[in-house]
């Protein structure tokens, strides 16, 4: 592998009552498609995969995942796993703007950078958590490297290339709104944007004033130029691992606007997502019910078969019923859990 750089950064992280700080270490590795930065929290746990996250366009790992990973109930889950949070190139805090003419990697190439990260860390398997463009990148990685992916949490994934209608709409929006409003329109519904809640104000502020907006536009262009993942139910091109599919009820492309969440459920509904994630991990045999909160334990008992106490893995156990946070089932048994929140 090519040249490696390492930078140590101690992250600021507000502590929840009774919690001790977890060290975070940021690294950069060179890959055939340029350098990629990622931040590791926690220490590797024997016989457990790393949780590896990939963020959406307009965000970085912190703005995308901090509210979820710092959510109180999430702590009992993540303390059992090392976490690797990838920043797409040019999205890391303080990233310099790429020079004019820089060829930003395609989403497929972003996926091809992941083996360099895992090789550097000497990690063999992951549970991927991706949002939007990040969910696409992790799916592509899982299709190419199925043996290294134990599970995937895909939030607001669009596995298809843009059709000509999408392109026309995209071009029209490009003529009538700013780059930052275009990105915000990808992340949030029009209803949320016009509601202008504190959360929307915060993210509008982050994106409008991003010093790396030119880089963000390059990631955005790669997202819009993605090709079909070509998933076929029961066909040759399928994800081989258990998948938790999450759709925000107000995701910009979700037609049926339902309950009380938004386009970015990991920001607006971290509690529901945490609960669903626990069920998902328990279905994979990673969360012994003794580790679960009393509330989750009682719900989970009725939703899943028992997970083994030592946390050993079984792909046959899975959720097959709706949880309070959303609808699950469908898909091949033991593999897909669908959550709408
Ligand atoms: C984590 O503990 O994995 C985490 C903390 C802060 C931001 C993102 C992730």
3D structure, described in words:
The protein is α/β, with parallel strands linked by helices and 341 residues long. The chain has a single domain, classed as Rossmann fold, CATH 3.40.50. The protein has 12 helices and 9 strands. Strands 1-2-3-5-4-6-7-8-9 form a 9-stranded mixed sheet, sandwiched between helices. Strand 2 and strand 3 form a beta hairpin. The protein is globular. The site of benzoic acid (BEZ) has 11 residues, from helix 1 and strand 5. The site of benzoic acid has 11 residues, from helix 1 and strand 5.
Q: Looking across the biggest beta sheet, what order are the strands in? A: 1-2-3-5-4-6-7-8-9
**Total strands:** 9
What does the largest sheet look like?
Answer: 9 strands, mixed
Low-confidence stretches: 5-15, 255-261, 297-333
What is the CATH fold-level name? Answer: Rossmann fold
CATH architectural label? 3-Layer(aba) Sandwich
How many domain units?
1
Q: What hetero molecules are in the model?
A: benzoic acid
Family: Belongs to the NDRG family.
Organism: Oryctolagus cuniculus (Rabbit)
Main location: other
Keywords: Cytoplasm, Developmental protein, Differentiation, Neurogenesis, Wnt signaling pathway
In short:
This protein has 341 residues and is an alpha/beta fold. Helices cover 35% and strands 15% of the residues. Bound molecules: benzoic acid.
Keywords:
Rossmann fold, globular, alpha/beta, 341 residues, binds benzoic acid, 9 strands
Secondary-structure map:
Blueprint: E1 4-6, E2 24-31, E3 34-41, E4 50-54, H1 61-69, H2 75-78, E5 83-87, H3 107-121, E6 126-131, H4 133-144, E7 149-155, H5 164-176, H6 179-187, H7 190-195, H8 198-208, H9 213-224, E8 243-247, H10 265-268, H11 270-283, H12 294-303, E9 336-340
Parallel strand pairs: 4-5, 4-6, 6-7, 7-8, 8-9
Antiparallel strand pairs: 1-2, 2-3, 3-5
Helix pairs in contact: 3-4, 6-8
The structure holds benzoic acid (BEZ).
Benzoic acid binds next to helix 1 and strand 5.
């Amino acid at each position: 592998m090519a040249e490696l750089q390492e930078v140590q950064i101690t992250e600021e992280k507000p502590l929840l009552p009774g919690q001790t700080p977890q060290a975070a270490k940021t690294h950069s590795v060179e890959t055939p498609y340029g350098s990629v930065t990622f931040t590791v929290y926690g220490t590797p746990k024997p016989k457990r995969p790393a949780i590896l996250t990939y963020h959406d366009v307009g965000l970085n790992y912190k703005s995308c995942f901090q509210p979820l990973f710092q959510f109180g109930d999430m702590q009992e889950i993540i303390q059992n796993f090392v976490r690797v949070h990838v920043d797409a190139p040019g999205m890391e805090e303080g990233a310099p703007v790429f020079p004019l003419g820089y060829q930003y990697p395609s989403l497929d190439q972003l996926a091809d950078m992941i083996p360099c990260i895992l090789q550097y860390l000497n990690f063999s398997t992951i549970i991927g958590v991706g949002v939007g463009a990040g969910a696409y990148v992790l799916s592509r990685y899982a299709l190419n490297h199925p043996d290294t992916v134990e599970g995937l949490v895909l939030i607001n994934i669009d596995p298809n290339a843009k059709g000509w209608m999408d392109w026309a709409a995209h071009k029209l929006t490009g003529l009538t709104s700013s780059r930052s409003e275009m990105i915000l329109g990808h992340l949030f519904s029009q209803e949320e944007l016009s509601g202008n809640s504190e959360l929307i104000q915060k993210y509008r502020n982050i994106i409008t004033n991003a010093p790396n907006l030119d880089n963000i536009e390059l990631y955005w262009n790669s997202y819009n130029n993605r090709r079909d993942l070509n998933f076929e139910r029961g066909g040759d091109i399928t994800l081989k691992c258990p998948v938790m599919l999450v759709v925000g009820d107000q995701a910009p492309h979700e037609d049926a606007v339902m309950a009380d969440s938004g386009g970015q459920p990991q920001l607006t509904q971290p509690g529901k997502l945490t609960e669903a994630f626990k069920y998902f991990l328990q279905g994979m045999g990673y969360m012994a019910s003794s580790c679960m909160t009393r509330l989750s334990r009682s719900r989970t008992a009725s939703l899943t078969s028992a997970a083994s106490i030592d946390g050993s893995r079984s792909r046959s156990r899975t959720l097959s019923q709706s949880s309070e946070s959303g609808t699950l089932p469908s898909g091949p048994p033991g593999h897909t859990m669908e959550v709408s929140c």
